[in-house]
Specification:
About 50% of the residues lie in helices and about 10% in strands. It starts with a strand and ends in an 11-residue tail after the last helix. The relative contact order is 0.11.
Length: about 325
Amino acid sequence: MNLKIGLLGGGSWGTTVASLTARNTPTMMWARDETTVDEVNKHHRNEKYLPGANLTPTLKATHSIQEAANNADVIVMGVPAQFFREVLNYAKPYIRPWVPIVSLAKGLERGTKMRMTEIIEAEMPGHPSGVLTGPNLSKEIIAGQAAASVIAMVDDTIAKALQQVFQTGLFRVYTNDDVIGCELGGALKNIIAIAAGMGDGAGAGDNTRAAIITRGLAELTRLGVAMGGQPATFAGLAGMGDLVATCTSNLSRNHYVGFQLGKGRTLDEIIEEMSEIAEGVKTANVVMELAQEYDVDMPIATEVYKVLHEGSTINDAFRGLINRKVGSEAEPG
């Protein structure tokens, strides 16, 4: 394969994807941290984010965003949602016309409430935009465990070409033309994962976790469909699949935040010790704004937001959910 990949971002998921694509095609990864760059180039490691993992030896890293983007035939954005626009604009002068840009972020931009592909379209019109998403825990994938993902783009021809870029070994990649649904599934499930973690941390039990996942899926589907996503998407890898992985795995950053909150720790304490961003914390307020804008009832997300940003306790959150009127399963609540 002759396509050259420029991947911007040196965190755990960005590095994992770069290591995957490097098996198929030349890949240059940009990272801010010069130590990370040296480690990738000299030792094929990224100990800060993927301790003990061996990266594909042909993967190259650089501290120069120009070097990563200049000759790239595909740009992959592996940075958190709140830094997405900044890094994209930083790389903008070096990205050639019409080059596809694929997001790995699972969040929504605060202030604008925009999805990452909307930011790409606003900042770089004419560039095909898409998202790679699904139940993808980086430490499992880099260790060689089987996983499946979705490459979502409006143009099916481009999606099929990129499918071959990302798919390798036990990492299976499916195509999907529902970009809106796939992006929203990835962003909205983080809020539900925090709720599941809160329950686990408080010792609420497996039945509670199952209820949170199931009712949480109903919530994110309602909002996702109201915003233009396709219902079937939320029953697939980008919806249910990602939700289950993020709500049940000890490797999930959002579940970890919820778990620690359930143990009684403060959000500031939890965030201070984390080396990576839990996107759900940053976008919870955006989800609330969207729920109000689209007139969608999201009781679980509402209680999570109150715990994160309004000083509610875990007991307050569960009390708020339990006290809601119970109707048909097809109804909100």
